[in-house]
TrEMBL record:
Belongs to the 5-formyltetrahydrofolate cyclo-ligase family. Keywords: ATP-binding, Ligase, Magnesium, Metal-binding, Nucleotide-binding. Pfam families: 5-FTHF_cyc-lig. This is 5-formyltetrahydrofolate cyclo-ligase. InterPro entries: FTHF_cligase (IPR002698), FTHF_cligase-like_sf (IPR024185), NagB/RpiA_transferase-like (IPR037171). Its EC number is 6.3.3.2. One of its GO terms (molecular function) is 5-formyltetrahydrofolate cyclo-ligase activity. Its cofactor is Mg(2+). It catalyses: (6S)-5-formyl-5,6,7,8-tetrahydrofolate + ATP = (6R)-5,10-methenyltetrahydrofolate + ADP + phosphate.
C-alpha cells in the first residue's frame, strides 16, 4: 500500500471515529432500531437461514438487538472472534450470549469456537465498516480480518457492510487487498452496490 493511500485511510478513519463519538444516545437508539428493521428485511429478501453478523461496539450502528431477534427466529448466526494470526474464529450466537472484551477491546462472544472455515456455510455476511463508497468498496478499521475472510472464500455469499447514513461516500481510499461488498445497510436504507459474489 502506498503511503498516500495509507495516510488517506488513516485521516478518514479518524474523522469518522470523531463523528461517531458525537452521536447522542437517542441517535444511537434510533440507529439500532433502524439497522434491525433493515437487516430483518434483508434476511427475508435473501431467504437467509444462516448468516454471520458482529456484536456492535457502543459507537457502531447497533446490531445486538438484531442478533438476539434473529436467534429467536431460528436463524443460525455466527459471530466473529479475532485470532492473533489474522484469521477469524466463529461462535454460534445463543439467546443467553456471554460477551467479553476481545483481543482489540471489541465485544466478542464467549463460548465454543468453530474454526475459520465455518463461515463458508452461511447465506449472508454482515460485517462492520468505517465507510462504504457507492461502488461497493469498503473502508474497514485497518486490521484486515474481514478482507482476508472475504478474499479466502471459494463461494462468497452476499456481503453487506453496516454503517451510519453519513458514511456512504462517493469514494473511499483503497488498495489491492481491500475487498468490495455487495451492499450496505444503514439505519434508513439497504443499498445494493456491487454484483453478488460467486
Amino acid at each position: 500500500m502506498s503511503d498516500a493511500i495509507a495516510d488517506a485511510k488513516r485521516a478518514l478513519r479518524a474523522e469518522l471515529r470523531e463523528r461517531r463519538q458525537l452521536l447522542t444516545p437517542h441517535q444511537r437508539e434510533a440507529a439500532e432500531q433502524g439497522i434491525g428493521e433493515q437487516l430483518d428485511a434483508l434476511v427475508d429478501r435473501l431467504g437467509a437461514t444462516s448468516m454471520s453478523c458482529f456484536l456492535s461496539t457502543t459507537t457502531e450502528p447497533g446490531t445486538r438487538a438484531f442478533v438476539a431477534a434473529a436467534v429467536d427466529r431460528g436463524i443460525r448466526v455466527l459471530l466473529p472472534v479475532t485470532r492473533s494470526d489474522g484469521l477469524l474464529d466463529w461462535s454460534v450466537a445463543t439467546r443467553d450470549l456471554d460477551i467479553a472484551e476481545g483481543m482489540f477491546g471489541l465485544p466478542e462472544p464467549v463460548g465454543e469456537l468453530i474454526g475459520p472455515i465455518a463461515v463458508n456455510d452461511v447465506d449472508l455476511l454482515v460485517i462492520p465498516a468505517a465507510a462504504v463508497d457507492r461502488h461497493g468498496m469498503r473502508l474497514g478499521w485497518g486490521r484486515g480480518y474481514f478482507d482476508k475472510t472475504i478474499g479466502s472464500m471459494d463461494r462468497c455469499p452476499p456481503v453487506y457492510a453496516v454503517v451510519f447514513d453519513s458514511e456512504v461516500l462517493d469514494e473511499v481510499p483503497s488498495d489491492v487487498h481491500d475487498q468490495s461488498v455487495t451492499g450496505v445497510v444503514t439505519p434508513t436504507q439497504t443499498l445494493d452496490l456491487a454484483p453478488a459474489r460467486r
